[in-house]
Amino acid sequence: MSGQAAVVDVDVVGEAISAAGLAAQLSDAAAGAVTTFEGVVRDHHEGKAVSRLEYEAYEPMAVRVLEEIVREAVDRWPVRGIRVRHRVGDLEVGDVAVAIVVWSAHRAEAFDALRYVIDTLKRRAPIWKRETGPDGRFWIEGPDHVASSD
Amino acid sequence: MQVRVRLFARAREVAGVGELVVELPPRSTVQDAFAAAVDRAAGLGSMRAQLLVAVNEDYAEWSTALAPDDVVALIPPVSGG
């Protein structure tokens, strides 16, 4: 480690995102490991067919919470940087909802920090999704599906 | 004092609006702001047990004291990622 501060870069955006796009911006000769994650809209959720998802965020707070989570990760593991993008708006099956890249000198801390960021984001970031499928529209609230009225 | 109550996801759908401005006495709490919101949008009452709350974009408690022009957010169970 060079001792320089780790890169912390998070945002919530309305356009298409990809982990490859985030990783392409890196140029860090000290990074021996680059781990990436994409959360992708799949065609089913707990036995129900899904055709599309709408993501909604409390945007300024969501960005703040993502930044807090990433700062916790860089304090805990010696990584060189973490970038996170979460998409909002209408997404279809196959679209990337969240993209994360973590880079570090060695792989173990990159994997651990990446896992921490995605797991914590899912529990803490003020972001919601509503599923649309043949059975109608449902808010996803943790383990619960609650019918949407509009 | 006036406080803004922001509503998201199913809470917004249940209330039919994304924001309510409520008038509260001094030394009111998040719970008081919620009660004032329920007065205007009764359906929110049954969501109480599932909601988290934030004040000025930080997670807070139902007992958190409010100041004039604070922004309270009602946060249903999150499902990002």
Quick rundown:
The complex is a heterodimer of chains A (150) and B (81). With 150 residues, chain A is of the alpha+beta class.
- Low-pLDDT residue spans of chain B: none
Mean pLDDT across all residues of chain A, rounded? 93
**Structural class estimated from helices and strands of chain A:** alpha+beta
- Unreliable stretches of chain A, pLDDT < 50, 5 or more residues? none
Inertia-based shape of chain B: globular
Which strand order spans the largest sheet of chain B, edge to edge or round the barrel? 2-1-5-3-4
Tell me the span between the first and last alpha carbons of chain A.
Answer: 52 Å
Helix coverage percent of residues of chain B? Answer: 10-25%
Q: Terminal Cα separation of chain B, in Å?
A: 37 Å
Average the pLDDT over all residues of chain B and give the rounded result.
Answer: 97
Structural class of chain B: alpha+beta
- Strand content of chain A is 35-45%
How do the SSEs of chain A run, as a string of H and E?
EHEEEEHEEEHEEE
Radius of gyration of chain A: 16 Å
Percent of residues in β-strands of chain B: 25-35%
Strand order of the largest sheet of chain A: 7-5-9-10-11
Assembly type: heterodimer
If you compute it from the alpha carbons, what radius of gyration of chain B comes out, rounded to the nearest whole angstrom? 11 Å
